[in-house]
Amino acid sequence: MWLDANESFVAGGRKMIEEVCDDWIGPGTVRRKMEEGYVFGYLLENGSKAGFLSFGILDGGVIEIDKLYIEPRFRGRGNGKRVLDRLLEHGRSQGCVKAALTVNSKNSPAIALYEGRGFEMEKEVTYRRDGWPETRLYVMSLALSPDG
Fold first, then answer.
1. Quick one: average pLDDT of 45-71?
2. CATH superfamily of 2-143
3. Cα gap 14→33, rounded to integer Å
């Protein structure tokens, strides 16, 4: 699912995605993140896996939206908005004062979704891997108020 959701905007295309997949969502990474308290799950639509998500509550009252991918055939139906809103509600219910995430700079639909919900770019970072094009990422955040 993650491969298909990211292929169009990751520098190096599908080949790079397959090689770096373990760095981002491989079993070792998922296991480590779960040990750190992150939650992983699927968005289901009529019994089909429509999306994948991961989040963690960090020190300082921050909910980190670590993963939020919608399967291409399930896009354009408001699924991303619904999942994001639920994650923000959960963060507020846990006393979080901030939501944070990182997004590929070429993922215009996701950036538009996040900006539409009030997220702002804090900084730009570069992901580097030997032999592959650099990938620019945006770190974005949103101040959370208890009343939404």
1. 95
2. Gcn5-related N-acetyltransferase (GNAT) (3.40.630.30)
3. 24
